[in-house]
Amino acid sequence: MVENGFRIILKDPAVKGILVNIFGGILRCDVLATGLVQAARKTGITLPVVIRMEGTNVEEGRKILADSGLSLITALDLKDAAGKVARLVS
Amino acid sequence: MSIFVNSGTRVLVQGITGREGQFHTRQCVAYGTRIVAGVTPGKGGTEMDGIPVFDTVQAAVDATAADCSMVFVPPAYAADAIMEAADAGVNLIVTITEGIPVVDMARVKAFLARKACRLIGPNCPGIISPGRCKVGIMPGDIHLPGGPVGVISRSGTLTYEVVHQLTRQGLGQSTCIGIGGDPVSGTSFIDCLEAFEGDEETRAVVMVGEIGGTAEEAASEFIKTRMTKPVVGFVAGLTAPPGRRMGHAGAIISGGSGTAQAKVAAMKAGGIHVCENLGVLGEFCVEVFKG
Known about the structure:
The complex is a heterodimer of chains A (90) and B (291). Chain A has 90 residues and is an alpha/beta fold. Chain A is built from four helices and three strands; from the N terminus they run H-E-H-E-H-E-H. In chain A, strand 2 (49-55), helix 3 (58-67) and strand 3 form a beta-alpha-beta unit. Chain B folds into two domains: 10-120, Rossmann fold (3-Layer(aba) Sandwich); 138-289, Succinyl-CoA synthetase domains (Rossmann fold). Chain B is built from nine helices and 14 strands.
């Protein structure tokens, strides 16, 4: 699912970065993080990806991102995430 | 106090043996909710983590005196599950299921009109009174018990976002309700506003709307004429293109109506304090509510 999302977004040559903002309720952050890591690997994305993740199973999710070895950028909250991605693409 | 649920609420879970039903039942139990029964047709007589499972809602109510149901039943069977709960005398039916056909929900609405029960949802995160009772899929630990703020939202994620920011500002919540993103649903913004207006613990309300329908406009009119407590409003979808469905079945600008701009204008006309930047909503509430 995340991979398909990345592929659709990356079709647009104007895209310079991706912001993922998820506050997990029924969607668990560990499931999301696993999807993000797979999507980043399979698409070989080189654009900056800023991830803001909170909610259900967030600790497990953060660990998966940290252990992935990928250069995904994490953010503290919505404001921080928007600021980070804006700086990275400008 | 809280609205619609409290620490005495006795909850049964329809669809307790399914993947989401099991996971979120455990989360609710861990939060302190009194989950007294589960219902899965064909699995009556078994248990889930020591919670007795029944074949029918009636059997579960008879055995456990449950007065609230949380519904995780898949979309094709969910309407029937809601009507079964209403028929068994359950007072409050919280339906999490997304994707119930609109025509099924129209049938449910007509059926519930003859019953005394309240439906929250479908396609919603549920309801929580922090520290007392969680009936839904929201992450419990972001909430701060004790009021003074009541939260109402059509979106799950945005409810969590708002609650998280309120908590970080030290503003607790009395009750938080996700009313769901479907075009046909049970409890409305106005039902919640009316209850919050009458609830002593609630001294202010945050209302999160989104594009599509006219619920925000109706709520704004209600607030203008009937609410004495301050209300902060936010509307998602200021940049939404017309004709495209934005995540929720009910979130669509059709024929030029249901735009975020119109809803923001209606809110402002109703005396609602509209926050236009979600990233600073918590700080915005502190400013508005301290007065």
